[in-house]
Amino acid sequence: MQPRSAATTSRRLTNPARWLRALGQAIIVCVLMWGGQALGQISGPAPSARLVQKIIIQHEGQPAASEQLIRANIRLKAGGPYSGKASDDDIHNLRKTGFFENVYVTNKQVAGGVEVTYTLVGKPVVTEILFEGNTGGRKFKVNKLRKKIRSRTGETLNRPRIFSDTRLLQKEYQKGGYDQAKVGYEVRHDEALGQAVVVFQFDPGRKVKIEEIVFENAVAFSQRELRKVIKTRRHWWMSWLTSSGKFETDQWDEDLEMLVQFYQDEGYIDFKIREIEFEDSEGDRMVIRLDMYEGYRYQIGNVTFEGTSIFTEDEIRRGVQVRNRAVAPVMLEGAIFTPSGLSEDREAVRDFYESYGYLDTRVLVSKVPNTDQGTMDLVYRISEGELNFVEKVEIRGNTRTKDKVIRRELAIYPGEVFDMVRVELSKIRLEGTGLFDAVETQVENNTRTARPPQSHHRGEGGPNRPPHHGVWV
Predict the structure, then answer these.
(1) Which among 55, 303, 331, 441 is least buried, having the fewest CB atoms inside 10 angstroms?
(2) Does some domain include residue 43?
(3) CB-count exposure of residue 220 (10 Å: 0-12, 13-18, 19+)
(4) Are residue 303 and residue 359 in the same domain, yes or no?
(5) By CB neighbour count within 10 A (0-12 exposed, 13-18 middle, 19+ buried), where does 222 fall?
(6) Looking at the structure, do residues 335 and 314 belong to the same domain, yes or no?
């Protein structure tokens, strides 16, 4: 074979693509060699964890708990590995016991490992209760304020209770007309003596009197009618006797709820309070303005009943008399719609079915608003369930007479179709005997199937049904 010429060799070395490929291969080899060395260094033997050589427990002031209880709540153990996370968990666990105000953990290097010291500061005893900034006048004398709070001297410091006391004191100031009053607290803790002084700090703010309450955009009702709905009153010359004219935050929140409820009970279910303005008037006077939207007053449109096969729609509308009380829907066509009335009618339909022995009846109501007409259509969807028979009548709590005397007064017996009307009649009869201070009835569904004789049927007004579930009365 003849040797390659010098020209051929020169062309091969100077080819740019081959030169770059060779360079890349060289770089990869270097990276792999360096990575292997680095991996060998990383995967070398890990330094051994420091061991806890000793655990020291010391107290600031009087010990608040036994050493046995303290060690039971410590994860770090002598001879075991030291962990900063375990040390933090120990602080949390010890404070969680409720015996300590503060817990400090320190460590120092010693021969063979680390020495850990737990410094425990027990909850102090309250030696004094002070009231700073209490400038509310005669009504807020210190002796009166002490009676309002639960914190007492001589007891262990209880921060949640102290916070609750600040809310009580703040309410007292607001009742006195200081609607912007703020009350905080400070604990002055002497850890060495294990004692604490609790200081309630008052910022009364400005005392104001309500000059006027204005219900803007009120058309359906007069200002006077609306003022009677709420308990917050205007200030007048007899306020010194009636305590009216003061603004209390809690009472005002209740008043707003009462105002919404009033409008909804009158059929204005879209009513809302859009904005409330508190305007400063002359001196210590204030005017409250409520920007209201009344909306439509809805009346009942069409009322329909779906899923009924046992009773007709007319029977449900007529209802039934239970203890001189009509059990029937009231919000029918043309009546004023109210959310509370809808809830009561739903229960009335369910009670109607229960009075005839259908204790598992479920009633759902769908509302269909017609905003252009100002009406609300109601659709009752009824799942009638199964007929229930009386399996057993129990008498409990009788210490006055024999059970057979009581049973003579009953209008309902085992084997009969359950009838709430007869249950109520039985109750009336027993109350009429004068033997008992009170008579209560309780209906319990029995999980076993009761099958009384087929000759027992529901009374007048409904079809005969095969027996199904049993109940105890």
Answers:
(1) 441
(2) no
(3) middle
(4) yes
(5) exposed
(6) yes
Is 404 in the same domain as 468?
yes
Q: Residue 27: exposed, middle, or buried by beta-carbon count in 10 A (0-12, 13-18, 19+)?
A: exposed
Tokens matching residue 156:
């262990």
Q: Count of domains in the chain? A: 6
Lowest mean pLDDT among 43-47, 57-61, 131-135, 285-289: 43-47
The answer for residues whose C-beta is within 8 angstroms of residue 267's C-beta and 6 or more apart is: 297, 298, 299, 336, 337, 338
Are the C-beta atoms of 256 and 271 separated by less than 8 Å?
no
Helix (H) or strand (E) holding 227: helix 223-229
Q: Do 257 and 230 reside in the same domain of the chain? A: yes
Rounded-to-5 percentages of helix, strand, coil across the chain? 30, 30, 40
Tens digits of per-residue pLDDT, 171-228? 888 877 787 889 999 999 888 888 899 999 999 888 888 989 999 999 999 999 999 9
326: left (phi over 0), alpha (psi -120 to 50) or beta: beta
In a domain, 350, yes or no: yes
Query: Which residue from 312, 313, 301, 296 is spatially nearest to 366, judged by alpha carbons?
Result: 301
pTM for the whole structure: 0.54
Residue 472 and residue 393 in contact, taking contact as beta carbons nearer than 8 Å: yes
- Domain with 400 in it: 388-472
Report if residue 47 sits inside a domain: no
C-alpha span between 129 and 461 (Å, rounded): 73
